[in-house]
Specification:
By secondary structure, this protein is an all-alpha fold. It has 13 helices and no strands. The radius of gyration is 18 Å and the shape is globular. It starts with a helix and ends with a helix.
Length: 265
């Protein structure tokens, strides 16, 4: 029963924090630490992948109309805005795919509840958001060169504690891209990567030896999926009027709080 309750809590944490620039992976590691999760790094990473898959599916659900339009445009022989968008998404995937393929073992080691690392990266995320908050508002679109730069930010954000959406949206804003367009691109660019990660693990059998019960994983998936739908819609509705500095303060406070908690526990 405790495993199921913990899975629900982790799912809610993932669902809420995936779409806000506050690091879902960092919050997951903090939540696991506070809940006393004793899973091995590989098992811990498995739960993280499942929860990220749930929020990826939530993204697909929220943007289902846009995704259908993109797919229709992709199979159109004539050049189109949708086809260009897909090419930019592919370009943005290259840095993270490179890191995932060649540094997989090193990444697994980071997901071992290294709270000092997580909290330090949360503070770094807060500082990045502070800088981005000072950027002027513009209405520029994502270019092909910018798509690659945003992809580099996404690759760096694989480190637990660095917000993926925070890093990619902040990078986009600093490049002069419209904030709403930056958020949409940030949410959609990670979906193919998560699906690719799941497919790779299933085909290579990387997780077949992981000893985990299915009930907590299914419960965590459902919790993250439902919460993710709410958080995604909420973020879209407030991003035009929201200021990144509020998320920056949150990351810094949580990061410092986590450091203090780790020191005394």
């Amino acid at each position: 029963m405790n495993d199921i309750l913990n899975a629900i809590i982790l799912g809610v944490v993932q669902g809420l924090t995936e779409f806000l620039p506050v690091s879902s992976s960092g919050h997951l590691e903090l939540a696991k630490y506070i809940l006393g999760d004793k899973a091995l790094p590989r098992e811990s990473l498995m739960m993280t992948v499942v929860l990220h898959f749930a929020t990826a599916m939530a993204t697909v659900f929220v943007f289902r109309k846009e995704i259908m339009e993109i797919l229709k445009g992709l199979f159109n022989r004539l050049p189109s805005e949708e086809k260009s968008f897909v090419y930019k998404i592919i370009i943005s995937m290259i840095p993270a795919a490179f890191v995932g393929l060649f540094f997989e073992k090193e990444l697994e080691a980071l997901f071992s509840q290294n709270i000092m690392l997580v909290c330090s990266m949360l503070i770094l995320t807060g500082l990045l958001l502070f800088v981005a908050d000072k950027a002027a508002y513009t209405d520029k679109d994502v270019t092909f060169s910018n798509a690659f730069k945003i992809g580099v930010a996404q690759a760096i954000a694989i480190t637990p504690g660095i917000s993926r959406s925070g890093a990619t949206i902040s990078t986009s804003v600093l490049l002069g891209i419209d904030r709403t367009k930056a958020a949409k691109f940030s949410f959609l660019m990670v979906v193919p990567l998560i699906f690719g990660k799941i497919a790779k693990d299933l085909l290579t059998g990387d997780f077949t030896t992981v000893n985990m019960e299915y009930t907590p994983m299914v419960t965590g998936f459902a919790s993250a999926f439902l919460t993710g739908i709410f958080a995604c819609k909420w973020m879209i509705s407030i991003i035009r009027k929201s200021q990144l500095k509020y998320f920056a303060w949150y990351c810094v406070i949580i990061g410092l709080g986590g450091v203090i908690y780790a020191i005394y526990h």
